[in-house]
Design brief:
Layout lengths: L11 E5 H12 L2 E4 L6 H12 L11 E4 L3 H13 L4 E5 L1 H16 L5 E6 L14 H5 L6 E4 L3 H18 L3 E6 L7 E5 L3 H7 L2 H9 L19 H6 L2 H22 L6 E4 L8 E5 L3 H12 L4 E6 L1 E3 L3 H6 L7 E6 L10 H12 L6 E7 L8 H11 L11 E3 L24 E8 L4 H15 L4 E8 L7 E9 L15 E6 L16 E10 L8 H11 L2 H9 L3 E5 L1 H7 L7 H12 L4 H16 L4 H16 L5 E3 L15 H7 L4 H15 L8 H6 L24 E5 L9 H5 L5 E6 L1 H6 L9 E2 L9 E6 L9 H5 L7 E5 L6 H10 L13 H4 L18 H11 L3 E5 L3 H7 L17 E3 L6 H32 L5 H16 L6 H18 L6 H12 L8 E7 H7 L1 H9 L6 E6 L34 H6 L5 E6 L3 H13 L4 E6 L15 H10 L6 E3 L1 H5 L5 E3 L8 H5 L3 H9 L1 H28 L11 E6 ...
Parallel strand pairs: 2-3, 2-4, 4-5, 5-7, 6-7, 10-11, 10-13, 13-14, 14-15, 16-19, 19-20, 20-21, 28-29, 28-30, 30-31, 31-33, 32-33, 36-37, 36-38, 38-39, 39-40, 39-41, 53-54, 53-56, 54-55, 56-57
Antiparallel strand pairs: 1-8, 6-12, 8-17, 9-11, 16-18, 17-18, 21-22, 23-27, 24-26, 25-26, 32-34, 34-35, 42-46, 43-44, 43-52, 44-49, 45-48, 45-52, 46-47, 50-51
Helix pairs in contact: 1-2, 1-6, 3-4, 6-10, 11-14, 15-19, 15-20, 19-20, 19-21, 20-21, 22-23, 30-39, 32-33, 32-35, 32-37, 33-34, 43-44, 52-53, 54-55, 63-65, 65-66
The structure holds thiamine diphosphate and iron/sulfur cluster (SF4) (3 copies).
The site of one iron/sulfur cluster has 12 residues, from helix 31.
Amino acid sequence: MTEGFSNYKTETKCVDGNWAVAHVAYRTNDCAYIFPITPSSPMGEEVDAWAAEHKKNLFGQELKVVELQSEAGAAGALHGALVLGALATTFTASQGLLLYIPNLYKIAGELLPTVIHVASRALAGEALSIYGDHSDTMLVRGCGLAMLSSFSVQEAHDMAAIAQVATLQSRVPFLHFMDGFRTSHEVNKITLISDEQLKVLLPYDKIEEHRRRSLSPMHPTQRGTAQGPDVFMQLVESSNTYYQAVDGIIEKAMADFAAVTGRTYHPYEYAYYGTTQPTVAIITMGSSVRVVDRALHYLKSEQACMIAIRMFRPWAAKKFVALIPPSVQRIAVLDRTREGGSQGEPLYLDVCTSLQTQNRHGIFVAGGRYGLGSKDFTPRMVHSVIQNMLRKDVHDIQHPFTVGITDDVTHLSLPLGRPLSTIGDEATQCVFYGFGSDGTVGANKEAIKMIGNYQEQTKVQAYFEYDAKKSSGWTVSHMRFSPGTEIDAPFRIEEGQGDYVACHNESYVQANKFDIVKFLKRRGTFFLNTTCASVADPKERLEALEALVCHKTLRKLALKNAKFYIMDAGRLASKYGLPGRINVICMCVFFRLSSVLPLEDAIALLKSSIRKTYSYKGEDIMQKNIDLLDTVVNDPESLLLVDIPKRWRAFEDAEQAFSKRHVALIDDEKARQFMQDIGDPVARLQGDAIPISKFLQNNLLGGVMIPGTSKYEKRNPNPSKKVPVWEPNNCTQCNQCVFICPHAAIRPFIVTRDEVTKAPHPETFQTLKATGVELQGKRYALQVSVLDCTGCNACVEACPEAPKALKMGPIEDLLTTGVENWDFAMKLPERGHLVEKSSVRGSQFQTPLMEFSGACSGCGETPYFKLLTQLFGQRMLVANATGCSTIWGGSFPSNPYTVNKETGRGPAWANSLFEDNAEFGLGMFSATQHRRARLVGYVQDFVHQMEISPPQNDLLSQLVALLHEWLEIRDEKSDRCTLLFDHMAPLFKSVLSQSPGADSKLSDLLQKIWSERDMFPKLSQWICGGDGWAYDIGFGGLDHVEAFEANDVNVLVVDTEMYSNTGGQQSKATPAGAAVKFAMGGKQQKKKSLGEMFMTYEHVYVASVALHNSAQVLQAFWEADQHQGPSIIIAYAPCIQQGVRPAGLNDMYDESKFAVESGYWPLYRFNPELTKQGQNPFVLDSKKLRKDVTAFLQRESRFINLRKRDPKVADALWEQVTADVNHRMDHLQQLAEGYKNFSHPSDAKIKVLFASETGTAARVARDFANACPDSATASALDDIDIDDDINGKVVVLFVSTCGQGAMPRNGRNFYHELCRRTEPLQAETKFLIFGLGDSSYYFYLKAARDIQDRLRALGATQLLDMGEGDDAAEDGMEAGLHDWLELVWPKLEIPPPSEVPHIQAVNATFSNRAILRPEEDWHVLEQYYHGVHHAVNATIISNDLMCRPDYNRDFRRLRLAKANTELENFQLGDALEIFPQNDPTLVSQFLHDYSPDFGENTVVQLHQAFGIHGEISLAALFTSILDLFGKPTKHFLQELATFAKTEQDKAILLDPMYLKKAAKQTGMTVADVLMQFQTANPALPALLGMIPPIKPRAYSIASTPHASHIELLVLIDTWWCEAGMKYGLTCNMLRKLHPSNTVWCRIHPGSMEPPSPQDPVVCAGIGSGLAPHMAFLRDRVRAAEAGEQVGPFSLYFGNRYRSDEYLYESELAEYARKHSEWFHLHVAFSRDDPHKKVYVQNLVGDTDDARLYLRDQPGLLYVCGNRQLPKPLQQALVKSFCRPNPEDESEVSKAIKAVKDLYLHGKAQQEVW
Ligand SMILES: Cc1ncc(C[n+]2csc(CCOP(=O)(O)OP(=O)(O)O)c2C)c(N)n1
Ligand code: SF4
Ligand code: SF4
Ligand code: SF4
């Protein structure tokens, strides 16, 4: 080496450690094998990007960069390349490095030269940590690699070169490591090694030798043989000489390097700054060397020196020991790793051994751990280490020790002294606090480069810290600059050292959140970006600041004499159309205030940087940024210096952090403690100070986390400051917004009216009458958690346009009311169980058990996980692969997985690693299976024992019955097992607490069952992860799990089409043409079709789903869970890394939709269960492609960027993507049309179609299609083609109506096409249509009617009247569907599907009791009514006829005592439900006649049948519970037919006409049928299961809650058959009741919202429909008589004859007389004048009341009567509304609109029957 280093031209550059290493590795290698892992990924990314730019290495080629499926793969590939004589390298860290281990042994064993570059990182143990320490590198120290450690960014660059030279010289492979993050991510200004210098250093002869040694058929040799005991050892030992030479080779390489570069290094370095002889030596390696050096330098310690270790392997003991001065008596060895249970950590052991082997005795060696997981290591800690070593008595030295934490449990930690200001005054130190997405970090990275590059001698350093949240969390940038002195300070800026401290988010200084000012030095500059700066008046501005910023902060600013500047950067940015992007502004402020560069130069540099950065984003954005910059520079007004008033010095510290106050309010004791001790300090960046004991006290040992902590954070992660605002009048309660919300921040609540009044802000706690039968009487509220909403806009996008019921509004308006209303709503009872969760709407009433995660705003992964928890959350186990879903799903201390507040149950979630997740899940599953089998064994044993000797004890016998039932249903995939367990648990506890019975074996068995109680529920095993896991690293395991049919597990793959968590590198899910990291040149290969691969197994349930199609997603989740065997759902997940333009993930919903509609993402399901039923298992859910794939590609940066960079390549790849998409679609189409030998659906004669918003119409259509032998599967209307699928065909349509009469979204395009079409349909086109809707809506069934009208207009023949499925009907829409289907089958000339009835026999046995006392029956019935139905037994006070006794209609006034509190608490407008009973005489007669086997006194033991347990006589059962005299259903007859003894009986029972005929003739009852077909004699349990239970009947209450009784107005129902008049069951009972009789009844919330006494009201009622109006009227009379102000009240009442049916005549007349000023009575009696029938509606139309009170005033309309009333009444309203000018057309059309609005705005309420 002859040339001097000064001969080379060198360049300096501001770079980080990763870049520095990559820069050398790229140029000195042929190939690189890569896989992403933090913090080493940027090395791979850099080399890939350079290769994409065709940059050349030293050998004149581009580096060949190959990404593998895992690090194990990269290691294998590296090995192969080396064997083939390539110069090859790789980059990795942590778990990645562990996966290299087997190959490291191979590579070292074969003496293959290579350098593996590692950014050293912690290993996942009790938790994952992406941060730096030496745990990974220390674990590979035995593999046989030489190991070099770099201490700084410059060294990382230099050691990369030295290692490369040394490996080639020695043939020993090298591992070169730097400290993860601390060095890999620190930006520093370094001097680069030029190509010329590298060329001089590289031993080309050795490269040649390496190449010559390669495996080649030209000179073949064999590698990797198997050897026996005789030779293996000798061959292993034969490489010793190579290792012995390494030390010398490294020394030489370093010397050569020094000669060429001027930078001198040694394997071990000595440092001492005292003047005498040191007695203490500190031994360390990595970045800590610089810290120790700085501390020693600052302290000028006479006692302590340091020996720094660069060459860790091979360890040269002699060289090392020689550096220890003879004066040293004590050594402290610092290790950045922990080996639990060892004698000491690796470096410590090496030091001790060296002293021993080199004969240096008498030195005390203490070992200490520091900096684990990037814990900051500072000079102050070094000081503590020295102090420890200088303790007088050697026995007092803490060994082993830790430094940097407070260990108050094992007391290993050293106490810390005051911070040392080791950085000289020459350097400027700056701290910036930013918000995740505000661009602060990016801007700072730019700034550091500008400053560093500005002048040759300027030195810079920057280090960045981030919140664990994926975005919108905090960021802290630490930056140092110096005019000439090197900045070797690998630690954060310390307290009181900052020259410039900036807070870019005002919420950080609000309510004492972060202590930012602590960094500021005296007289330093503090900049705050705040809205206060926009307050014009200086005095008011100061007041605003005082109101906003916590006083502790203001006091500190005053005491530090700070220069305090403010600016409203947010306002400025918005003004320039760049909302939220404050980076340019804040950077400019920094240059203005810090004077690190002359301002003019700084601005020029900033402008050129803006041009560079924003050129990709378009001219417009670039110009806006430049204009903005000019404003900040030129407008002195925008940046204001605050004149700090003296009073701030006296401000009190008293203010408690908002979060602390918030934490104190947490109800749950455990959670409060956790948040106090840990959650809150961590959130306020004070986690470093938490002592170990706090973790133990909170039971966090072993990485355990308590559930549901994310909800306590309330971090307001919303840069847009906008949240959705609900417009209830437009809301259809579809819950689509709730489904899509990635953050679970918008939720529907089912509330009672009473609860609404208790809301903290009832005026803003808006509600709607809840739709759907199951929610009758309840209210629907939609609430947003204002402090958890991220403002992502997804809910607004998802809200159907009919018009939209959500829009974004300013958050300020809701910060108090919204927050408090939300808190209130969260405390409301859980009511999800009231609604079936199998529909989209129903699923969203279930409380999500995954909420407020740290995912990016609008993340496409989270909604899927949220849905999983809503469906299966309380019985769900999750194995989650490392990836975004573990970071947003499990970042300590925020746990978004939570529990149901009533049961305390929720998802059990765990993460093992990235690579092993499928296996991890399989382990969970098999353990569950095994443990459950054990439980089943115990239970079977126990039940068997009980059969042999039946229990004498009542509790025990109940328990046995339940266990029996559990055994039967234990494999049912539902919550039933859990519910059964809930019944069992108290019995178990009581039985176990009783003194052990005589049989201790039995109690042992019981005890064993109890100890396995966790296995009672049927658990649902989920294995979840991203595409990187499923397609790449975990594919082997995933494949293995799916390959076995017995593995009943479900896999969810959230496919973002890249490794999102590590910053967006390609996976095999990335499509061709995408330019993502590791594929910057554009991915060449098409996306792997994972779903299709798994379909080939044929037993795997496979689905490909996308978010916007909520119904399909939901269906897939259900089917996957229900499938007996493995499943996989591949879910398209829009991700921030895809770069959706222009709105990013604010467009998440449309992004998903576009992907599907362009065919880019296919929707399908492959369900093996269908194969079993002989059907095509493959269903293509996305059929019709409406958008162009290229249009989709044009929306995303991942595709567009390539086009900008390399249009030719992009064009070719885009063509390829389009071809791939079309090809895949064709293939899927073929599968749909004929998978294997399943029939082609075009054979189908009937086409079944649907338009469905919430999935109900789709479900009904699919059921119909399944039942109809001549049809294929059902399709959404938008997926079909009118000509192909409708024209000339027979179609059956199921259409729901949403919004205010809107078409569901999957039918809109179809409808538009239908409307546009002018060409008639072929004459043979026939159709049937079934509409679904809610009759309480004005536009009931509108969508179905629109389609019907249009089809008719185009000439199609309608085969039947439209069927009506009314959600508001008593039995929901099913009844209407049933009736319609009865007519459909004959019309289609298809025999109705033969339903094989499934008889659910009740769990009952004959009792051995001969007879029961009536009180005993009563006791059980009480259990039934009270326990099961929450009914009470009320006494009749009076039962009065309201008409003449001989009159043919029987109106009655019934009064009941309100003796029970349950009856007292009803509200105006409620109804009373009465449980009727059968006539006991008829029952006893029937039982006597029906069967000789049982009679009325027979006693049966019910085992949880009808919800009861215990013995009951058949008489009681048939009188009170079973509807023996009700009308038989078709279903009942079918069931009975299965018992028929003769074919003839069977035929009669199955004849559809039989029921009709018999009903017409005799009014046949269930009892009649049973008597007629006595030979079909079902066993009693079956019979009890076949007869439906008696249903209660509801009657509106006519009295007010103030009255002492409950009054009902009842018309006794009768009906006729040929045999005579018949009574309905309840009426028959009611008419016979006498005072003092009792009835079972319960309050049923009314369907109409009552008016307040002040509301103007118009009521229209006919017959007994007067009842609710009477209640409203009586309430108003009461109010008026109490002196309250009351509004006008008009009552229109109609009946047939005035003489006999003028109900409440005298009372009404009296009111009309007494209260004429506000009460207006109108009565109509239709039959009084046979020539002119006058109805209620005629009176309404001919009077002014409706106009006055409903049009001119904001009044309310109430309508109660039969179904004939509403329509004519609406016309009457129009008439009244335009009464003064009935002929004026414009008045008429205004009136029509006003009536419509009345209904649309919920001002009209009706109850019809
Ligand atoms: C063995 C190993 N290699 C690499 C990593 C680093 N790593 C963590 S998550 C991840 C990417 C996950 O991507 P994907 O599975 O697609 O999930 P996403 O983040 O997109 O949700 C990588 C590479 C790791 N944790 N372990
Ligand atoms: S804006 Fe986004 S986070 Fe907020 S409620 Fe809507 S979907 Fe949820
Ligand atoms: S209509 Fe809009 S606001 Fe109402 S539930 Fe549906 S999506 Fe939500
Ligand atoms: S998947 Fe994408 S959007 Fe979601 S948290 Fe990860 S990076 Fe953010």
